[in-house]
C-alpha cells in the first residue's frame, strides 16, 4: 500500500507552538548543562560520576528535541544552491557508516550518473537523508542490506529511494508517520520524519512510504531538478 503523506496543517500548528516554548527552554538548559559538567569534573565517587553522566545524557536529549522544534518554528534563512545529489548522499553514508557497521548493516548504492545538480539547502537535505537512513538502520536490529537508488524520473524530477529489509510498518500505522512524537522506539523522539516532511515540502518535493511487515520499507523522495 503506497500512501502519499501530506502533513502541512499539522506542521504549521506544531510550528506555532514551538515558536513560543522552544526558545525559552534553550538558555536555562545551557546553564544547567554547564553546571552539571562542572560538578561532574569535581566529583570523586564513581556513583556520582555516573549520576552526572545520566544527567548530561538526558539534558542532551532535551536539547536535541528543543532544537528540532526550533527548526520547525523558525522561518529558515534559506540559502539554496546547486549541488551534486550523489555526493551529498555519499557524505551522509560515511557519516552513518559506524552505526551501520555496529548493526551489521551494509549500505549499497545504485546511483545514475546522469543526475543533474539540484537546487537545495544542502544541510537541510542532508538532515533528511540522515533521518531516513537512520530509521532504516534502526529497523534492522539483526542486520541486513540497505540500498539507496538515485534515478532520473523524467526531465523534471529525480527520485531517491531508501530500501531496507527491516521490520516494516503495519498499514494502519502509515498515516501516523510524521506526526509529532509518533515513535515505536524506546529511545525515539518521533520528530525525524516530521522534520523531513517539512524540509522536503520546502524543496517542492514529496515523500512516499511503502512498507510490508517483516519484509522492509521503501522511502522514496522525489525532488525537482
Ligand atoms: P524516531 O526514529 O525517533 O522513532 P521518526 O520520526 O524518525 O522518529 O520515525 C517515526 C516512526 O516511524 C519510528 O518510530 C518507526 O516506528 C517508524 N519508521 C520510520 N522509518 C521506518 C523504517 N524504515 N522501518 C520501520 N519503521 C520505520
Ligand atoms: Mg528516526
TrEMBL record:
The chain holds residues 457 to 681 of 681 of the full protein. This is histidine kinase. Residues 20-225 form the Histidine kinase domain. It comes from the Bacteria.
Amino acid at each position: 500500500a503506497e500512501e502519499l503523506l501530506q502533513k502541512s496543517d499539522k506542521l504549521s500548528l506544531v510550528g506555532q507552538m514551538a515558536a513560543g516554548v522552544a526558545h525559552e527552554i534553550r538558555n536555562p538548559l545551557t546553564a544547567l548543562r554547564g553546571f552539571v559538567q562542572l560538578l561532574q569534573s569535581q566529583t570523586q565517587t564513581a556513583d556520582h560520576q555516573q549520576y552526572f553522566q545520566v544527567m548530561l545524557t538526558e539534558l542532551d536529549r532535551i536539547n536535541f528535541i528543543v532544537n528540532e522544534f526550533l527548526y520547525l518554528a523558525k522561518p529558515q534563512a534559506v540559502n539554496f544552491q546547486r549541488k551534486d545529489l550523489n555526493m551529498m548522499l555519499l557524505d551522509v553514508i560515511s557519516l552513518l557508516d559506524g552505526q551501520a557497521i555496529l548493526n551489521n548493516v551494509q549500505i549499497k548504492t545504485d546511483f545514475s550518473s546522469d543526475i543533474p545538480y539540484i537546487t537545495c539547502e544542502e544541510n537541510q537535505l542532508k538532515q533528511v537523508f540522515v533521518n531516513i537512513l537512520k530509521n532504516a538502520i534502526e529497523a534492522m536490529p539483526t542486520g541486513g542490506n540497505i540500498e539507496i537508488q538515485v534515478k532520473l524520473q523524467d526531465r523534471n524530477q529525480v527520485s531517491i529511494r531508501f530500501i531496507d529489509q527491516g521490520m516494516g510498518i503495519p498499514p494502519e500505522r502509515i498515516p501516523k508517520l510524521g506526526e509529532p512524537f509518533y515513535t515505536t522506539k524506546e529511545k525515539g523522539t518521533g520528530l525525524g520524519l516530521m522534520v523531513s516532511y517539512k524540509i522536503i515540502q520546502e524543496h517542492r518535493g514529496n515523500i512516499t512510504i511503502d512498507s510490508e511487515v517483516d519484509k522492509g520499507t521503501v522511502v522514496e523522495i522525489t525532488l525537482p531538478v
